């Protein structure tokens, strides 16, 4: 019988158990990754992933079938300091959704259509720029603001890959070779922001 979530203070509140399938991955990282910084970063990222799974299970159980969980991958913050110390923060550029694929796009850039629609609504409701930054197999990188593109929405794919896609013409997207990424980001997001 499915456990009912009542409230965070209820003795009947169900907290998902750690994902047992991840145990071999933790073990592999401990045994095979020699670089200490990389080993710790992988372990932290895996723990964050596990926590996201648990959080998603908790939230979905609150209103079954009606809650969707989305996260933003990056919010760059400029730390403002003065002689006394911390003065505040400023968001640099907006929010970022990070994607990666094995090879570069040809002709069109495709992202999940449902996610695009939700992130576009979020961008409008918060009045904040929301960018996709996509790694195309380290050969090309793609950057676009959801407010400044006009995607065509199409259902594509076969089997489990069949889904709604937001299809954007490549000429609407900033396409960068690897050596162009840092100068482009500096020009777009930092000019006029950092004195």
CATH architecture of the largest domain: 3-Layer(aba) Sandwich
The gross shape turns out to be globular
Our count of helices gives 4
Query: The CATH topology of the largest domain, please?
Result: Trna Endonuclease, Chain: A, domain 1
Number of beta strands: 9
Distance N to C terminus: 60 Å
Global mean pLDDT: 84
Secondary-structure element order, N to C: HHEEEEHEEEEEH
Residues in helix, %: 25-40%
Q: DSSP strand (E) fraction?
A: 25-35%
- Poorly predicted residue ranges: 1-13
Strand order of the largest sheet: 3-5-6-9
The secondary-structure class comes to: alpha+beta
CATH class categorisation of the largest domain: Alpha Beta
Tally of separate domains = 2
Q: Roughly how many Å is the radius of gyration?
A: 20 Å
Main sheet summary: 4 strands, mixed
Question: What would you note in describing this structure?
Answer:
By secondary structure, the chain is an alpha+beta fold. The chain folds into two domains: about 1-70, no CATH class; about 75-190, Trna Endonuclease, Chain: A, domain 1, CATH 3.40.1350. It has four helices and nine strands. The chain has a four-stranded mixed sheet, with helices on one face. Strand 7 (about 150-155) and strand 8 (about 165-170) form a beta hairpin. It starts with about 20 loop residues before the first helix and ends in a 5-residue tail after the last helix.
Topology at a glance:
Layout: H1 23-32, H2 36-62, E1 77-81, E2 86-91, E3 95-101, E4 108-112, H3 113-126, E5 130-136, E6 140-145, E7 152-156, E8 163-169, E9 174-176, H4 181-190
